[in-house]
Description:
transport; iron ion binding; Desulfoferrodoxin_Fe-bd_dom_sf; Desulfoferrodoxin_SOR; 0% helix
Amino acid sequence: MELLQTADWKKEKHVPVIEVLKWDNGVVEVKVSVGKEIPHPNTTEHHIAWIELIFHPEGEKFPYVVGRTEFAAHGASVEGPNTSGVYTEPVAHFTFKTEKGGKLIAFSYCNIHGLWMNETELK
Ligand SMILES: [Fe+2]
């Protein structure tokens, strides 16, 4: 059984899409989102709960967790599920410093379909 799942994000709605917005003077800005091509459901019962970004510098043994964004609003209110009309969108922005390139690895977690990953080079 595979713990982590991955696929082409253009065909599979759970895969996190990693976009390096810039790498300027050692400061990296990365956007990670789910559902860029095919929207993922966002309901109390079925939603993306969090996205995490990891950076593995080239030639180093250990990776570093850059950060995690939790998506906390999924329509629930005192009236019940899907009644608040408030839904956090699964989009996360991370900013960090590095002089070295390496691999950016993103995880996304769907509350019912498990852990998904994607990766790209920072170069
Ligand atoms: Fe899902």
